[in-house]
Amino acid sequence: NAGVTQTPKFQVLKTGQSMTLQCAQDMNHEYMSWYRQDPGMGLRLIHYSVGAGITDQGEVPNGYNVSRSTTEDFPLRLLSAAPSQTSVYFCASSQDRPSNQPQHFGDGTRLSIL
Amino acid sequence: KQEVTQIPAALSVPEGENLVLNCSFTDSAIYNLQWFRQDPGKGLTSLLLIQSSQREQTSGRLNASLDKSSGRSTLYIAASQPGDSATYLCAIYSGTYKYIFGTGTRLKVLA
Predict the structure, then answer these.
(1) Predicted confidence (pLDDT) per residue in A85-95, tens digit
(2) How far apart are CA A112 and CA B6, in angstroms?
(3) How confident is the model at residue A1 (pLDDT cuts 50, 70, 90)?
(4) Closest CA to B11 of B74, B88, B72, B65
(5) Is the dihedral of CA A26, B37, A45, A60 positive or negative?
(6) CA A43 → CA A9, A27, A33, A107, B58, distances in Å?
(7) How far is B86 from chain A (nearest CA, A)?
(8) Sign, CA torsion B51/A98/B38/B29
(9) Which of A83, B39, B64, B83 has the greatest number of beta carbons closer than 10 A?
(10) C-alpha angle B66/B50/A39, rounded to 5°?
């Protein structure tokens, strides 16, 4: 079972570059989200989606864009990378809204901005 | 604003010991609380989900309790094993499609 798949696993960027972190799930989950994990700060929500065509901002959305054209995919775009965006990024999904179902996480993308 | 705290940040115990991990939160208006395990370089694995109406959930050697009135949850691990070594995170869902995570307890079980 693939679950939630994130690519790439590692990436190094230069300041100002743009890139897209990929997230795909094969469980037909409606709810998907992106978190970043920084030392000493826990996971913080960047953006989320409650279904295809519907996205909304989380706690720390600045500098990131998302789209949800299909149920399966939820890419995260860094528009102009900054050193403050160095982090580990996790994608998560759940069958229903988080109040009812546990979330499933990918293995993360470790991103360094030089 | 909901805040989630996990103390201690790190814990080492000998194999076979029963142990308790703590999670405290500031706002009792929650929908659910979820305990996760995170192995180094990996994502989060859901261990137990407790709805606000429940007092506890059990899975194998794991038991999680929830006391909303005191703003506390505990994760009890029975007969700990080296394979239990990982970081354990608790997360609160209070609505608006967002979980609030604690910073975790890093557990090491010594053989």
Answers:
(1) 999 999 999 98
(2) 27
(3) low
(4) B88
(5) negative
(6) 18, 23, 12, 14, 25
(7) 15
(8) negative
(9) B64
(10) 85
